[in-house]
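so my prof wants the structure for this chain in the tokens format not the other one, which i didnt know existed until like an hour ago. anyway here's the sequence
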Amino acid sequence: MHKINRAEYRVLLIEDHPSLAEAMTDFMQTYGLEVRIASTGEEALRVVSAFHPQIVLCDVNLPDMAGPDIAEALRATSGAKDALIVIHTAMTERDLPLCRDINASVNMFLPKPLTDAKLCSLLSELEARAKQKS
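here's what i got, hopefully its the right format
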């Protein structure tokens, strides 16, 4: 497991498939992360202002908004202004370059499924960003 002070890390998971959201939450909680789930963009916008996540992990296709549009709306709030916003998608690696320039509010695109290596990479990125600020 990644060796950082995980107690302070909050993740907003925006995922509209309940069983996947639950499994991903359980997985991230094994790393000591605090996770909140939103199933729509509208719900994410309500949650983010009080939760202030350091990571937003957002599905690309949701019932009310597309992931990059949610990222743009979240970035405009104080709750996610500095968050690492990641679009988590079932698109293939080959399709991802087509999406990378969709929106400057998105920090990165990450193919599903979320694995130990991918989560550790996100946590390392978050740690590096924190060091840059200090």
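also thought this was worth mentioning. The chain has a mean pLDDT of 87.
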